[in-house]
Amino acid sequence: MAAKVFQNLIGGEWVDSRSGRTHENHNPADTRDVVGIFPHSDSRDVDDAVSAAKQAFAKWRLVPAPRRAEVLYRAARLLEERKEEYARDMTREMGKVLKETRGDVQEAIDTFYFMAGEGRRLYGFTTPSELPNKSAMAIRMPVGVCGMITPWNFPMAIPSWKLLPAIVCGNTCVIKPAEDTPLSTLNLVRTLMDAGLPKGVINIVFGSGPDVGTPIVRHPDVRAISFTGSSEVGRIIGTMSAEQYKPCSLEMGGKNALIVLDDANLDLTVDGILWGAFGTTGQRCTAASRVIATKPIYRQLAEKVAARAKSLKIGSGLDESVEVGPQINQSQVETTEKYVAVGKAEGAKVLVGGSRLKSGGYEHGFFHEPTVFVDVDNQMRIAQEEIFGPVLSMVACDSFDQAIDYSNSVVYGLSTAIYTRDVNKAYRAMRDLHAGITYVNAPTIGAEVHLPFGGVKSTGNGHREGGIGAIDFYTQWKAVYVDYSDRLQRAQIDTGE
């Protein structure tokens, strides 16, 4: 059967790219399977999409926010009906196992409901004026056309974090999905269109970062940028945005530590480590890529983790019994191989795993064994640099204080976790871990949509996705003064009269 051909969404119409070029979207578990053929667009398509979004903004911003929210409510119900279909599409194009892609779709559903609720809030505030017969207030205003650039690891959840708060606030959008996972973003936006979203409010332009992402960021009519991806690319996008004085939200890399103290429940801890390190095949910005354990329990914990990691079933995520799917593409699995070699050269020991799987049914996919390193020094590259693959580095420490220092020693600051029964140390960890997220007796993954998501240091630039943080980014404050004194009153001058 011939692969399905997809188009850009511009002004509510499905159109071919101006260049006529296309690229194939392959199943990473079996690259012989072509999921679809998508446009390879360029700056001309971006210009068309931004023009459509700008035109739609003139009307959409005037739609009362509760009415905008009703579209999200309808879309949420549609997405619930389509959950299984879209989860299977996502597993086929991205690789992660079905229970995870169902969770990805569910996260989008949750975001729909949460952000729809915000349509009846979007609170501003009133405050007393310093002058008589005068009122003062602050209200939220939409930003305008917003550009979004999204990654492949959560190809429906992360676009929902960006698109839904933006449109409920009255903005319009141009989004570039990751080249590896275009279908899931298309499915999300199609659901909104089927729920009655007006034409041009959301526009999709498929293509590469240089050909589509850069023109979105540089376009003068795009008034805000939201990016999720690597810190290296984020720095470039942040610089380009700053040159044009446009707000830019960056959510980037992580090298997240899971701390284990002597008194931890080790069986619970092992469950958390396995899920945190090898869920999504380690391809999460929040993945638990480091375990920092106190020396009395370090060896026992490492042996338990290795035994469980060795037993994980690897294969196509469409098989319900599989626990670890493929990596997303050739480049990503080669990066994992490179870091395994680096770890060995640095003197760390591979306790389990360490190899790419190339035979026995794995010939046509990007599979790598879950890998556990022990005897890892905290200064080794495998303990400091983001790998984005199924590689776990286990570091021994002498004390709670040293564990905190080790966790904070990396350039990133996204997610952290601690396993302990000592409530005093748990609260100290919550205070002293330099990160945007801290979990107690749970792994480094599992964010919920109504809380702020994001990090510090090289992980982010101060903005947050999820919760009210997203509303803050997609609105601008306007101060409003109403003088009903029927005479000129001069602030700071006439206050003494």
Automatic annotation (TrEMBL):
Residues 14-480 form the Aldehyde dehydrogenase domain. Keywords: Oxidoreductase. CDD domains: ALDH_AldH-CAJ73105 (cd07131). It comes from the Bacteria. The active site is at residue 251. Belongs to the aldehyde dehydrogenase family. This is Aldehyde dehydrogenase family protein.
